Amino acid sequence: MRKNLFLILCFLFVMAMLSLGWSVFQKQSANPDDFKQPLKQIEDRYMGRQTCAKCHAEQDRLWRGSHHDLAMQEANEQTILGDFRYAEFSKDGVISKFFQQQGRFWVNTDGPDGELADFEIKYTFGVMPLQQYLIELPGGRLQAFSIAWDSRAKEQGGQRWFHLYPSEEIDYKHELHWTKHSQNWNFMCAECHSTNLQKNYDPNSRSYRTQWSEIDVACEACHGPAARHVIWAEQRAGYESIDSQTKGLIVQFNERNRAKWKIDSVSGNAQKNVPHDADKEIQVCARCHSRRVQLFGDYRYEQLMDTHQPLLLQTALYHTDGQIKDEVYEYGSFLQSKMYQAGVTCSDCHEPHSLKLRAPDNEICLQCHAGNQYDTKAHHFHDTDLPGSRCIDCHMPANTYMVVDSRRDHGFRIPRPDLSEQFGTPNPCIACHVSQSAFWATDKMREWYGHPPSSDQSYAETLHATRSGAADALERLITLLRDKNQPTIVRATAIEELNIQLNKELLLLLIEALRDPDPLMRNAGLKALEKLPPERRWTLAHERLSDPVRSVRAMAASILAEVPTASMSSNEQADFRRASDDYLSALRFNADDPDAQVSLGNFYAGRGESTQAEQAYREALLLDPNWIPAYVNFADFLRHSSRDDEGEALLRTGLSFHPKASILHHSLGLLQVRKKDFDGALISLQRSVELAPEDARFSYVYAVALYSAGQIMEARSVIKSALLRVPNDLSLNVLSAQLMAED
Question: Which of 118, 416, 552, 594 has the fewest CB atoms within 10 Å of its CB?
């Protein structure tokens, strides 16, 4: 009897403990201080939208149904917009069939092996004007399916299936196939469609365990984890150290609190009553509304470049005058605008929870611009309510991405058809008046305003001159870099693309860029140094190893990798080690990216750590056999290791995937020269020029090879043709003069 009683008491005790433990666990989830934990241990906890909504009901109401709310959803009857009633879509010989079974949504299409199979739709992705669908593949991969649903109304051309790459012929081997790395949600898209996303990539198994706090872009995606704020709001005992001024918020969006805009009666433009001294809101929005690279997983809410690296005005992304070309979102163009310089923030125009404009049509602009000066035919010369009369028609021209998604340029620039004449840039005048020319539009503007088109954004000529090696490029570049009124992103682009031999004046400007208050300039200055010998880089850049911004420190470590440790002092070695840890941390965070693996290989190669370098190059090719930079850099590494036979086999493998990759033909040609296979080299080098005639370097090397083979007339012909395409290239002009001097 005693034994039974003892067992009963033990059982009751265990059950009581389990019950207590469950109760505590439940409270811990809802109330972060139940264990009286130090604030440091709980301040990064995410509490969830429903917790926020208890006090912020109006903001929650505005948010519901927004694009942030619908950024990503589980696939079900309520969220799926596409036609899954056995609809079919045919492209490139593959008929994809969409169907539904027992409340689940499926597509029968070609999979990773090219064979038709059934794949379940796990999530919806976006909502308007198109909706994509995510399919789960082994290894925790979610892949964005390339056939999307046009969500627009039927009368607008919508309510149909369409392919996101209609002009590309894509099979299962193609890099744009839905099963490939470029369509991987975990790496490419996830961060900006969910809250508190943790990618959790395991390089050993090459798999993901990606998680999120909330499936969509909820409150804490922008405001940061709310635990501190909730503690402050509920005035919990023991946490009095939380600053009542910040209310426990990770980031305070208070830039508009004191700001008021007053329209000047003379100019018709508004001026802000407080200086433009903070970019908190823009920095947070730019995390997802910019073309950027994510370097680290622990996002910092007030300094984008601590964790991300925005891309500059590269020729593949922007037109010469800074207008949007590729899918670059809003940040890069907005940084060029006079509005940004004046202190305008995103929420001046957009309600931040619903994401809608604060006023319709021209009224949004008339918040800061006098209607009697700008909203008149005397200003825009178009009939009211017809195309051309809206501010955005001329100052925010649209580009269409993903076939149906029209997005507006946020550079707010004055139309410059005269630049279209010179550089082939687009302008909204002839985008509307399609039968007319840029010359016609320039004449019209001269007729209307009494002078040729002009604007403060006058850097197109300088960027073009710098990129083309024009005779006056140096003078223009120096003028641009000295002009602190020019947008920082433009000056950073110019310094990053520096392709002129450094003279004393330019060197001083480069040093100034490396010490600029804006990390965008410092980072660009570091990239410009990559063209210099390692010892010169060290002299100019070693201070940046202790830069306050993490991505700048990482970039400094990258470009200084080839500097021998023995040449550094003990303090410098410590700085380099810490910055290298940052850089390697960024590359390991992106271990699922073949580009990061190539960078890792280059870093180890620069440090003389050959085993790790080779491992990284091979990992890049395992991740994506289509990744051209991996073939080029790995082959160059093999060259330094006296393994050109392996390098040739590698390059030929790359060419089997990419027979039209000019850089692979060029690399193979150089390798064949080293192996004294001159006939093969001439064939390869000629092919590189045929595939990329605009690349002056390829023409130069091919012409030198022809000259070395005694084919002087052919070499002259190659140089002559190249100079027609890039007339200002210094190397080509010097070689041309040398060849012409030959008998």
Answer: 118
In a domain, 718, yes or no: no
Q: Tell me, yes or no, whether 314 lies in a domain.
A: yes
For residues 17 and 680, the model is more confident at 680
**Which range among 296-310, 462-476, 554-568 shows the weakest confidence by mean pLDDT?**
462-476
Q: What is the pLDDT of residues 415-434, one digit of tens each?
A: 999 999 999 999 999 999 99
Q: Is residue 179 in some structural domain?
A: yes
Do 77 and 150 fall into the same domain? yes
Q: Residue 687 carries which side chain, given as an amino acid letter?
A: R
Domain count of the chain? 3
* Paired tokens of 720: 């002559």
Q: 12 with 83, same domain? A: no
Q: Mapping DSSP to helix (H, G, I), strand (E, B) and coil, where does residue 150 land?
A: strand
Q: Are residues 21 and 164 in the same domain?
A: no
Q: Report d(CA 480, CA 478) in Å as an integer.
A: 5
Q: Is 433 helix (H, G, I), strand (E, B) or coil?
A: coil
Q: What is the pLDDT of residues 49-67, one digit of tens each?
A: 999 999 999 999 999 999 9
Q: What's the Cα-to-Cα distance from 417 to each of 324, 394, 420, 470, 723, rounded to whole Å?
A: 16, 11, 5, 22, 27
Residues 215 and 322 both lie in one domain = no
What would the two tokens of residue 330 be?
A: 């809003």
Return d(Cα 63, Cα 559) in angstroms, integer. 44
Count helices and strands in the chain by DSSP H and E runs: 34, 17
**Mutual angle of helices 628-640 and 610-623, in 10-degree steps:** 160
| DSSP assignment string, 658-679 | -TT-HHHHHHHHHHHHHTT-HH
Residue owning tokens 């200084």: 560
The per-residue pLDDT for 238 is 75
**Across 145-154, 229-238, 316-325, 601-610, least confident range:** 229-238
Sign of CA dihedral 473, 475, 481, 485: negative
Tell me which residue range forms the domain holding 115: 72-219
Which of the listed residues 194, 219, 244 is the one where a domain comes to its end? 219
The answer on 86 and 26 residing in a single domain is no
List 148's β-bridge partners, or say none: 162
Reported as a single tens digit per residue, the pLDDT across 616-644 is 999 999 999 999 999 999 999 999 999 99
pLDDT for 725-743, tens place per residue?
989 888 899 999 998 887 6
Residue 100 and residue 160 in one domain: yes
Domain boundary among 377, 396, 414: 414
